[in-house]
Amino acid sequence: MAATKDPRPCSIADALALVGEKYSLLVLREVCLGNGRFDQLVRNIGAPRDILAARLRRLVDAGILTKRVYSERPQRFEYRATQAGLELEPVLMTLKEWGDRHLRRGTGLPMVVEHSCGHALVPVVTCRACGDEVRHQDLTAHPQAPGWTLTGPTAA
Amino acid sequence: MAATKDPRPCSIADALALVGEKYSLLVLREVCLGNGRFDQLVRNIGAPRDILAARLRRLVDAGILTKRVYSERPQRFEYRATQAGLELEPVLMTLKEWGDRHLRRGTGLPMVVEHSCGHALVPVVTCRACGDEVRHQDLTAHPQAPGWTLTGPTAA
DNA sequence: GGGGAGGGTTTGATTTTCCAACCCTTCCGG
DNA sequence: CCGGAAGGGTTGGAAAATCAAACCCTCCCC
Known about the structure:
The structure is a homodimer of 156-residue chains. The first copy, chain A, is an alpha+beta fold and 156 residues long. Chain A has a domain at 11-87: Arc Repressor Mutant, subunit A. Helix content of chain A is 38%, strand content 18%. Strand 5 of chain A pairs antiparallel with strand 3 of chain B. Chains A, B: Residues 10-107 form the HTH hxlR-type domain. Chains A, B: It comes from Streptomyces filipinensis.
């Protein structure tokens, strides 16, 4: 689902071209939870079976999932996240946190993820260099490739 | 674009229902960069004008963007991120980082974001409680609402 | 040999997207 | 006063993606 003629070279656009189609990130959610079987995915995501099959093919081709046999005779499969797939989990957690805060004021969370430190996970995006939480006003964009023309206050 | 019958109550699914449609997150990318005018968005994202208009309406309705007049006579508009919109920027940065690492091995990045600490931003998702980087093996899911049946190794 | 689980594919109707063309207002130049 | 051009969309019809339900195949169990 690449933005058909995105004139900007952009890793965000490229990433979304792989995992931005409807259901793809929900597939990853389920697979990260260990629910990697076809009918589990159908039930838990609520996607049409044909679409789901297409997404799974795409994610496997992209190296985000692998298809494993968990039983010969009868032959049965399971999808699992590759390393690249697991590294998308922080994106999911960050999105979950946003949804928890903005879409469920007061409603109680449908799921809580516990971190190994013993606390409920509240993901925070920080800067690798200084450790500070990332906020918009601390960021400045520096285009490195043609196609980028900035005009706003974030421009460099 | 809600997963039409997602049986799971889930903040990830809900968030994607708002911003998961094609182009929506790219709109947010541009708006965060300060490129909030309709024809800038068309050019920079490469989306059809009608689709873009629909996305903008939706994002404004959802409280993620606002439509501001930046010139009366001739009347001209500009879209800006609300606080809720700005708080999605960490999601974009995390996704950008994933794309930079997995989709551009060796190709040189099309854009670098500088953090106010003086270094190029490399976003890291950490746990608010302990500060450690979030990794899959440190997470355990705890369903709080019906609809959640876990079977895998992540299950609680 | 009937039925169910698992993992899909096929078919046809319904929605979305896409693209090009068009519209409207206001400013500008001649 | 007339003809653009910029900005911000809307409209119409063709093309593509999605949806739901039905179907298929293999193997297992009774």
